Amino acid sequence: MPHLYLHVPFCQRRCSYCDFSIAVRKRIPAREYVDAVLQELKLLGTTDPGRQPGDFGGESLQTLYLGGGTPSLLPPEAISVLLTSLLDVFRATSSRDAVEVTLEANPEDVKLESATAWRNAGVNRVSLGAQSFDDGVLQWMHRSHDATRIGEAVRALRAAGFENISLDLIFALPAELERDWTRDLDLACSLLPAHLSLYGLTVEERTPLARWISRGAVRPSEDERYADEYLLAHTRLASCGYRFYEVSNACRDGLRSRHNSAYWSGRPYQGLGPAAHSFDGRVRRWNVRAWETYRRALAAGNPVVEAEELLTEEQRELERWYLALRTDAGLPLAALRRPLPPAATRWVERGWAETREQRLVCTPEGWLRLDALVGDLTGVAGAV
Ligand code: SF4
């Protein structure tokens, strides 16, 4: 498995929309976290003889992604220890920069000093949680940074030698926030990031946002706003030289996320850390979610896999279709019955999909309806 994900669960507060598996901490238990991850690594080879650390069937590590949570809250020394261990154990034999090493960071954690330390530790790509350039919106989201911090963070990263910088933005916010999406897109482009990830706001249970909505303090965005802003992003970013290569991701100069592309092409990956998922091509496993449960189990020498599921051939095919249609590579027509099923033909007639080089590829309008397309193709409405 040449793709490795490390989940760092710590955040300083919970954003209003977030239901991720996080541990809100004022003091980051960095040493306990590093010890726990290294212990999980040690146990990997003992709990399942088929899952020896570093055993990728001859392939060396290609990508390592530190996600969260907020990995940038870890002190740089802890990041350095983790990367040294992981890159050694997972046999990154070639030059370190051949491995795409991504760190998710919040703008308030990026200073020239920290960015230089990350770069020296082997990080070569940073995904920055910008979300918006509107201070009112950032406060509403419970984010810790203000808009000016985003530009300062990008400049600090560049000064530290990072060229591969990605910005996350959230769209389809409630109308009453009066967020100017065009302005945010333009400000993001003006920073010339290599990559942009755009996510529509979703209302997850047990979040502050869900509570605001249930008591009528906020109205969720309408589907029409979601579609309008999504399509606007396509035209605006295209005019700045970005190309969407996946439903939520655009890049310039071919600088795709190699790690996430591995997920979308169904490649196996190994996850470490609380709530991390792993996939070997047939079986999906996931770790216990809560940080304290994870830490205690490892301190006692116990494994942390909470459960696993064996995917049937049918499930794997459905997943392959769905993942392929998320990307600009599309779905090989050979995977479908020939000739094109009537459902797919209707999508092409409506301009929601195109056939290109023997593949069915979604247009932006099609990406807005992705679940419905997969349901149409398989005859299982809402199948994925
Ligand atoms: S920083 Fe990210 S992971 Fe942490 S609460 Fe906010 S959205 Fe969730």
Approximate strand percentage: 15-25%
Proportion of helical residues: 25-40%
Give, in spatial order, the strands making up the sheet with the most strands.
9-10-8-7-6-5-4-1-11
**Poorly predicted parts:** 380-384
Shape: globular
Q: Roughly what is the average pLDDT, rounded to an integer?
A: 92
Main pleated sheet: 9 strands, mixed
Task: Please report the distance between the alpha carbons of the first and last residues.
Answer: 25 Å
Strand segment count? 17
Blueprint (SSEs and pairs):
Layout: E1 3-8, E2 10-11, E3 23-24, H1 30-47, E4 63-68, H2 76-89, E5 100-105, H3 112-121, E6 125-131, H4 135-140, H5 147-159, E7 164-171, H6 181-190, E8 195-200, H7 208-214, H8 223-239, E9 243-246, E10 249-251, H9 258-264, E11 270-272, E12 277-279, E13 283-287, H10 291-299, E14 305-310, H11 313-326, E15 331-332, H12 342-349, E16 353-356, E17 359-362, H13 364-367, H14 370-378
Parallel strand pairs: 1-4, 1-11, 2-3, 4-5, 5-6, 6-7, 7-8
Antiparallel strand pairs: 8-10, 9-10, 12-13, 13-14, 15-17, 16-17
Helix pairs in contact: 1-2, 1-10, 2-3, 3-5, 6-8, 11-14
The structure holds iron/sulfur cluster.
Kindly list the characteristics that best describe this protein:
384 residues, alpha/beta, nine-stranded mixed sheet, three-stranded antiparallel sheet, 17 strands, 20% strand, globular, disordered C terminus, binds iron/sulfur cluster
